[in-house]
Automatic annotation (TrEMBL):
Cofactor entry: FAD
Family to which this protein belongs: Belongs to the FAD-dependent oxidoreductase 2 family. NadB subfamily.
Pfam families in the cross-refs: FAD_binding_2, Succ_DH_flav_C
EC number: 1.4.3.16
Active-site residues (renumbered): 290
Protein name: L-aspartate oxidase
Classification via InterPro entries: FAD-dep_OxRdtase_2_FAD-bd (IPR003953), FAD/NAD-bd_sf (IPR036188), Fum_R/Succ_DH_flav-like_C_sf (IPR037099), Fum_Rdtase/Succ_DH_flav-like_C (IPR015939), NadB (IPR005288), Succ_DH/fumarate_Rdtase_cat_sf (IPR027477)
Domain FAD-dependent oxidoreductase 2 FAD-binding: 20-390
Naturally occurring in which organism (per UniProt): Candidatus Syntrophocurvum alkaliphilum
Length: 533
């Protein structure tokens, strides 16, 4: 592998900013952590585009927590372990399910409103949950949470939230494995800034944009994982990608999700010939695990030579009230869900792997933390249980703040230390700069979709490896510096996903190999991690 430590240049005259908590990302993980941190010190939240650009904003179905008296953290733990297909870290899941209910109460105190029924919070049962435990705000739960957290953060005198601030690199002492802060590119002022902080928290979300078709917004370009990897963090479980089965078919590459809750409420799948097919693939039919439904749909699409299958929601009682957001979005595409079948196909949705952390959300670099989708603490294993990811962001964000005394006690880092430990010879340079970033991204997304997607096999993965390495070597700088950084990040993380997928010679959860279609518990109850060295 070609090793690179930085992608950005540290300039002597760059402005320098200081904080106690530097948070990268304004999704649920970043904003919740900011709110909690603000009781103790100065918080800066930096986000790549606007506060509206995150996976959190798009989350539909809800947030899972054992809040009902007939439910328990233990049952939630059992369901999470079952979905994780043998690879969950039980200590991490234990923290998630035990501390989840209290964190959800705090979300409500922060102003997030969930649907109510008979004076109690209304709970839905989603696929693979044994109890109704998903709190929701119609079909726009993420936005209900996001807007409440944004308002609280903006009201706090101790939190500064800045948009259009792109994380370029993590700064620190490479030998001592210590983080000092981050190099940030201000995309409005076209200027590089240095942020020095007692703690740096990466909450920069997932990787969906590595794939041609995804539910994720354009900010999900793996920047957080790539920057952490360059700095010496370990990335783990990277082969496990969740493909959501039912995404509204369109000519766009970023596609609109049709929540799993629709199938939970009775939505049915039909192939091109208007035949139901899920009974051929799994006893739970439409409520089978996401990876099974995605492969079934793909198979029906291939055998029937079609670009989509159909989801029938017409018969669901009060469907427009229960799913107003889905109703509106389909209507904008001239599909009336009360009258028409909805064309759907799978798309990349969620990154199970990420920056390896322990249950305190610590990475292997001192003073660098990660939480939310960018991190991998081990709660999802090989496959995420629906509605556990919003929960993960708040539970492990809080774990960072549980350690606040130690954080505040740290010495102040000087600019001299930052410059002394930056080596400009470690900045990425291309061997043969001929492919411009946007072209590189498009090529990468095609390769990942075709060869590292829902169904993988050795020949395709090897080809992907060669092709992606070629693009990486030939990537050319561009005036659009953000696009250039994103392309490097996407290529960096894609290469790790390909390598992990090649090495894991079995099928499990979000990783399916047609040449090794069986789960192999004798050889493969283990994780693979990658470190830049
Ligand atoms: C359509 C959709 C529906 C979903 N539905 C559900 C659901 O019902 N329940 C559930 O639990 N989960 C759901 N998920 C998953 C869930 O939304 C995410 O896992 C979760 O919101 C991740 O939160 P986060 O804070 O870690 O990341 P995000 O919400 O993605 O936030 C990441 C932030 O980092 C910023 N960022 C990225 N790169 C940089 C950079 N270089 N510099 C600075 N900032 C950067 C982004 O702009 C963004 O603000 C859904 C996801 C999608 C896409």
């Amino acid at each position: 592998m070609i090793i690179t430590r930085y992608v950005g240049d540290l300039e002597k005259d760059s402005p320098i900013f200081y904080s106690d908590f530097l948070i990268i990302g304004s999704g649920i993980a970043g904003l919740f952590t900011a709110l909690k941190a603000s009781t103790y010190g100065k918080v800066i939240v930096l986000t790549k585009k606007t506060l509206l650009d995150s996976n959190t904003k798009l989350a539909q179905g809800g947030i899972a927590a054992a809040v009902h008296e007939e439910d328990s953290p233990f049952l939630h733990l059992e369901d999470t372990l079952e979905a994780g297909a043998g690879l969950c870290e039980i200590d991490a899941v234990d923290v998630l399910v035990r501390e989840g209910p209290q964190r959800v109460r705090e979300l409500i105190e922060a102003g997030a409103t969930f649907d109510m029924k008979d004076g109690n919070v209304s709970l839905t049962k989603e696929g693979a949950h044994s109890k109704a435990r998903v709190l929701h705000a119609a079909d726009a739960t993420g936005e209900a949470i996001r807007s409440a957290l944004v308002q609280k953060c903006q009201e706090s005198p101790d939190i500064t939230v800045l948009e259009n601030q792109f994380l370029v690199d993590i700064l620190g002492d490479h030998n001592q494995q210590e983080c000092y802060g981050a190099l940030i590119y201000d995309t409005k002022k076209n200027q590089t800034n240095i942020y020095i902080s007692k703690s740096t928290i990466i909450a920069a979300g997932g990787n969906g944009q590595l794939y041609k078709y995804t539910t994720n917004p354009d900010v999900a370009t793996a920047d957080g994982m790539a920057a952490a990897f360059r700095a010496g963090c370990s990335l783990i479980d990277m082969e496990f990608i969740q493909f959501h089965p039912t995404v509204l078919f369109s000519r766009d590459t970023q596609r609109f999700l049709i929540s799993e809750a629709v199938r939970g409420e009775g939505g049915l799948l039909y192939n091109k010939n208007k035949e139901r097919f899920m009974h051929k693939y799994h006893p739970l039919e439409e409520l089978a695990p996401r990876d099974v439904v995605s492969r079934a749909i793909l198979n029906e699409m291939m055998t029937k030579d079609s670009e989509y299958v159909y989801l029938d929601m017409k018969h669901i009682p009060n469907v427009t009230k229960r799913f107003p957001n889905i109703y509106e979005n389909c209507l904008q595409n001239n599909i009336d869900i009360t009258k028409n079948l909805v064309p759907v196909s799978p798309a990349a949705h969620y990154t199970m792997g990420g920056i390896q952390t322990n249950t305190k959300a610590e990475t292997n670099l001192y003073s660098l933390y990660a939480c939310g989708e960018v991190a991998c603490v081990g709660v999802h294993g090989a496959n995420r249980l629906a509605s556990n990811s919003l929960l993960e962001g708040i539970v492990f964000g809080q774990k960072i703040i549980d350690n606040v005394e130690e954080i505040l006690y740290r010495r102040k880092i000087t600019p001299e230390e930052v410059f002394k430990n930056y080596d400009s010879t470690w900045v990425f340079t291309s061997e043969n700069p001929t492919i411009e970033p946007n072209q590189a991204k498009k090529q990468l997304q095609e390769i990942m979709w075709e060869k590292v997607g829902i169904i993988r096999e050795e020949t395709g993965l090897k080809q992907a490896n060669t092709e992606i390495t070629e693009i990486y070597k030939n990537l050319a700088p561009s005036d659009n510096i953000v696009s250039y950084y994103e392309a490097i990040n996407m290529l960096t993380v894609a290469r790790i996903i390909v390598q992990a997928s090649l090495w894991r010679k079995e099928s499990r959860g979000g990783h399916y190999r047609s040449d090794y279609p069986k789960r192999d518990d004798v050889r493969w109850i283990k994780h693979m991690s990658f470190v830049n060295c």
